[in-house]
Design a protein that fits this description.
The complex is a heterodimer of chains A (about 525) and B (about 400).
Chain A: H1 2-21, H2 30-33, H3 40-53, H4 56-67, E1 70-73, E2 76-81, E3 84-87, E4 93-94, E5 102-103, H5 108-122, H6 128-140, H7 147-156, H8 160-175, H9 180-190, H10 196-205, E6 208-209, E7 212-213, H11 218-268, H12 275-296, H13 304-326, H14 335-357, E8 373-377, E9 380-383, H15 384-406, H16 408-418, H17 420-425, H18 430-453, H19 464-477, H20 482-503, H21 505-522
Antiparallel strand pairs in A: 1-2, 1-5, 2-3, 3-4, 6-7, 8-9
Chain B: H1 5-12, H2 15-37, H3 49-72, H4 82-101, H5 113-117, H6 133-157, H7 162-181, E1 193-194, E2 198-199, E3 202-203, H8 207-233, H9 235-245, H10 247-253, H11 257-283, E4 285-286, H12 293-306, H13 312-331, H14 336-350, H15 354-370, H16 372-390
Antiparallel strand pairs in B: 1-4, 2-3
Helix pairs in contact in B: 1-8, 2-8, 3-8, 3-11, 3-12, 3-13, 4-6, 4-11, 6-11, 8-9, 8-11, 9-10, 12-13, 12-15, 15-16
Classes of the chains: A mainly alpha (about 525), B mainly alpha (about 400).
């Protein structure tokens, strides 16, 4: 019985659709509107039919109904438009006084139906936000009469998010279908998804309620199981891509921090414990540039990050030169003492930042072109700011590589790294090379601070956490080796992100440390050791 | 014929050294207890509970500084993770102190308060035996010892040294700090252990207990100094110094540096553990921030300020820096980091041999002024050390990234 009425209804709707899609769609079929003259049931049927039919005329009628301007005169639906009265179906003005019209009244059920019908119409709107809210409204209380609306929306919709919601709603209706074949198709269609919500929906089918399966047909249950497996597989892939990505983004920050350290440590054999504070200097420089743009160039605020690049580099490099000239220069050959002296420098720098800028964290605004992200799958988003930072790290890396390999200064730096006395003997000005290399290394750290300011808070002690990690990168990669630093930074970033997902952040850090200690047992010179023979004193 | 042990022990420290130790012992073991317990509060010589607590704390720091000097000054290994061993000793003894609270905690339960708070029903396995004083004493020495031995064995075996070793020890203490910050680790998380009530059934806040702990710290310091002197003036100490100055050459002669370094490293960690165990009841709290890298590196600066490789310098340095710290944190706390930072820089730049080195230089200059002929040789002797430390790139090859 039920089935018959459903078939009838579907048939009826299909018939209506063929009628409406016909090219000469100048007006609505008056028979659609006949229901408005009848009781509430009839009005609801008419509203549903209009919602399913779609089109501007249907929208006009429903808008009028919502506004209380739809009336009936002699069994004919009309719209009251100020003093003129128009035919609802054709839109023609009628020779009729506004006074005799009996306006169509609504009750709550009719209003609900009206809301659904309007949502069904909005599903084809040009405005994405409107379509999205309509899809959410309809997805919450799907109704089998809406199936054709959903199908139509799916055919035209390009936005993935809305498509997902609509497809899920349609499949949910089909899952309730009495026909096992329809259900089977619906389950298979849902298996294409990568959304955890769909997985939950399908899992609902595999449960028993009151001793009976929710889904009676065994074949549909099997299909549902397969579909769940498919979805889980897709979610797992999306999640590991997300993890690799966040590992890459951590790795690129580590790389920016470690590149500078690799240069300064390689050239001078001095660990600059204040290296993390140079990140801080770069980040505060970025903050100041943002402040300048806010006050003087608000129109170009989005580009303050680009303007901050040279500022961050130069300010960190200047601090670095001062450090090298005033302190480190006098500690050559005493690496352990310079460790202590640079630690003292870092204490002073942190406290200076605290006194000048205050102890609280500053938050820098992402420019608009860096906010948002690419959604890989439901819940896995790759934020633009991290993508930009990865790109930025690559850019800096290329510049440093070119500097090291193609310029005279780079050649000097490599020479001093490999053998300082010999380089001095053949005329390399080692003292000047030291200063320049230190400035460049510190400047790169400043760039790292700029990058960090876009994804983390800027505070006086922001750099302290990075010095150990950056040094681990240098240890792993091998001293004075750019390629080693790259591989080590990315490897450490990705491995620690995977471990974090598996065992938590703290255990991950400890495991990474243990791994490095074990690794050094095997390869004390790092992944990429300098070729040659060395003996210490 | 081998010199008898007692003779070697006596000879390890000069007469003036023994005299100083005797004076120090008399003051700390008799003078301070009397001044705190017997003298009335109105007396100008009376020491308040605060002063005794502060001095006791500094005595513990001095022990740590001596331990640091043994490994840094005599073996050339700069550890930036000694705070870990100190804290481990403190935690090991803290476990016993927590169990001594008994049912007097704020929840009145058999378990320590923080476990009740975490809704734990029974003690974790590693708390087994923590109600025994002897087991606690054993753990205080064994725990830092085992950690140091295992870590040191791996590190020294692969000849990690120089800045590599320093940074890895720093990472080690940092990782341990993160571990102890977790509540699930079972050591009270952020808050650590506190609110202690008694030791061996005696009230921990009583003046007698305070004085006892103070005297024990002083005795430990004296023992450390004597042991340290004995070790560094023995054959063992000389091999160690040789390893510090030229490890490869020592290896070529046929010594295995691993054993020497590992022994001194483990011993140093154990001494730190003992200091930590005495520190915790005197301060009344132990929490993971004791393991922060900043604390460990501060230990190094105590030694640097006093003068490396002198033992007495470590004691002086720990005293000077910590008294300055007490002064600053009471009067102008925001300038303490500046002072400490500039101290790090100034000491490494201008006082490579610390206060003791400065004292020796001044004395040598005075001797030179008094008797120009006789003093010449002594100046040559004492300045050579300073020269070595001062030497610029001219005559010292920069360690190629401290290549091991």
């Amino acid at each position: 019985m039920f089935r018959l009425t459903l078939m009838k209804r579907i048939f009826g709707v299909a018939l209506l659709l063929t009628l409406l899609v016909a090219p000469a769609r100048a007006a609505l079929d008056p028979s659609l509107l006949a229901g408005f003259a009848g009781d509430f049931q009839g009005r609801m049927a008419a509203i549903e039919a209009l919602g399913v039919a779609g089109g501007d005329d249907a929208r006009r009628v429903l808008d009028a109904l919502e506004a209380g301007r739809l009336g009936v005169v002699a069994g004919r639906a009309v719209i009251v438009d100020g003093d003129t009265v128009r035919d609802a179906a054709s839109g023609e003005a009628l020779d009729q006084g506004a006074g005799d019209i009996e306006l169509v009244t609504l009750n709550n059920r009719v209003r609900r139906t009206l809301a659904n019908a309007r949502a069904a119409l909005a599903l084809t709107s040009a405005d994405r936000a409107e379509r999205l809210s309509a899809a959410i409204t309809l997805g919450d209380n799907p109704n089998e009469t809406l199936l054709p609306v959903f199908d139509r929306a799916l055919a035209a919709e390009t936005d993935e998010e809305i498509r997902g919601i609509v497809a899920r709603a349609a499949a949910r209706i089909k899952l309730a279908s009495p026909d096992p074949l329809t259900r089977l198709r619906a389950v298979r269609a849902l298996g294409e998804s990568s959304d955890p919500a769909v997985k939950n929906l399908l899992e609902g089918l595999l449960q028993k309620r009151d001793g009976n399966w929710v889904e009676p047909h065994p074949e549909v249950r099997t299909a549902a199981k397969l579909a769940i497996d498919d979805i889980e597989g897709r979610i797992a892939i999306a999640e590991s891509v997300g993890t690799v990505f966040s590992g890459l983004s951590l790795g690129s920050i580590l790389l920016l921090a470690a590149l500078g350290l690799a240069i300064t440590y390689g050239v001078m054999g001095v660990i600059n414990m204040a290296h993390g504070e140079l990140l801080m200097v770069g980040a505060y420089a970025t903050f100041l540039v943002q402040g300048l743009f806010r006050s003087y160039l608000p129109a170009y605020l989005d580009w303050y990050v680009a303007a901050a690049i040279p500022v961050a580099f130069l300010s960190a490099a200047l601090v670095g030169v001062a450090m090298e000239r005033l302190v480190l220069r006098h500690l050559y050959g005493r690496p352990l003492e310079s460790l202590l002296a640079t630690w003292g420098l870092s204490l002073v720098l942190i406290q200076a930042a605290r006194v000048i800028f205050g102890p609280q964290n500053l938050e820098l605004a992402n420019p608009s072109w860096m906010s948002g992200g690419v959604e890989l799958a439901a819940g896995v988003v790759l934020p633009y700011n991290r993508i930009v930072i990865i790109g930025f790290a690559v850019f800096v890396l290329v510049l440093i590589w070119l500097m090291m390999q193609k310029t005279r200064l780079g050649m000097f730096v490599r020479a001093v790294t490999q053998n300082r006395p010999m380089a001095g003997c053949v005329g390399v000005p080692t003292a000047r090379v030291d200063t320049l290399a230190f400035a460049i290394g510190c400047g790169v750290a400043g760039l790292g601070g700029l990058a960090l300011s876009q994804i983390a808070n800027v505070g006086p002690a922001m750099g302290t956490g990075y010095i150990v990690d950056a040094f681990m990168v240098v240890v792993l990669g091998g001293v004075g080796q750019l390629a080693g630093a790259v591989w080590a930074a990315l490897g450490l970033g990705i491995v620690s992100k995977f471990l974090e997902g598996w065992a938590g952040a703290v255990i991950a850090k400890i495991l990474v440390l243990v791994f490095i200690i074990v690794f050094i047992q095997k390869r004390p010179q790092g992944i990429f050791a300098l070729k040659g023979r060395f003996a210490d004193s | 014929m081998r010199t008898p042990f007692t003779v070697r022990l006596l000879r390890s420290t000069p007469k003036s050294g023994w005299l100083a130790i005797a004076v120090f012992a008399a003051i700390t073991l008799i003078g301070v207890p009397l001044a705190h317990l017997a003298l009335p509060e109105s007396s100008p010589l009376h020491l308040s509970a605060y002063t005794v607590g502060l001095l006791g704390k500094i005595l513990c720091y001095m022990v740590v500084a001596v331990a640091m000097d043994l490994i840094w000054g005599y073996a050339g290994i700069l550890s930036l993770g000694h705070g870990l061993f100190f804290a481990l000793g403190g935690y090991a003894f803290g476990m016993y102190l927590m169990r001594q609270i008994g049912r007097d905690g704020s929840y009145g339960a058999e378990l320590p308060d923080f476990m009740v708070f975490l809704d734990w029903k029974e003690l974790p396995w590693y708390w087994a035996g923590s109600d025994s004083f002897l087991w606690a004493l054993f753990l205080v020495v064994a725990l830092p010892g085992v950690v140091a031995f295992v870590f040191g064995w791996f590190a020294f075996r692969s000849r990690i040294k120089g800045v590599y070793f320093s940074i890895i020890t720093q990472a080690l203490t940092y990782a341990a700090m993160l571990l102890f910050f977790r509540n699930e680790t079972g050591f009270g998380g952020n808050n650590g252990f506190t609110d202690f009530k008694r030791i061996l059934g005696h009230d921990i806040t009583s003046p007698e207990m305070r004085v006892t702990l103070f005297a024990l710290s002083a005795a430990l310091l004296i023992a450390c100094l004597v042991l340290g002197r004995y070790l560094v003036s023995s054959r063992f100490g000389r091999v160690l110094a040789a390893i510090r100055d030229a490890e490869s050459r020592v290896m070529f002669i046929g010594y295995n540096p691993l054993h020497y370094k590992l022994f001194m490293w483990t011993l140093s960690a154990m001494l730190c553990g003992l200091a930590g165990a005495l520190y915790v009841p005197q301060v009344g709290i132990i929490n993971p921030s004791e393991m922060s890298p900043a604390n460990s590196i501060e230990i190094a600066v105590w030694v640097a300020v006093g003068g490396r490789g002198t033992l007495i310098g470590a004691v002086l340095g720990a005293g000077i820096v910590n008294l300055a710290k007490s002064f600053f944190t009471v009067t102008v706390p925001e300038y303490w980091p500046f002072f400490l930072g500039f101290l790090f820089i100034a000491v490494t730049l201008y006082l490579p041999d610390g206060v003791v080195g400065l004292w020796r230089k001044l004395r040598a200059r005075r001797a030179l002024a008094a008797a120009p002929d006789a003093a010449e040789s002594s100046v040559a002797g004492s300045s050579s050390a300073a020269e070595k430390a001062d030497a610029g790139p001219a005559n010292v090859t920069v360690p190629k990234g401290a290549t091991a």
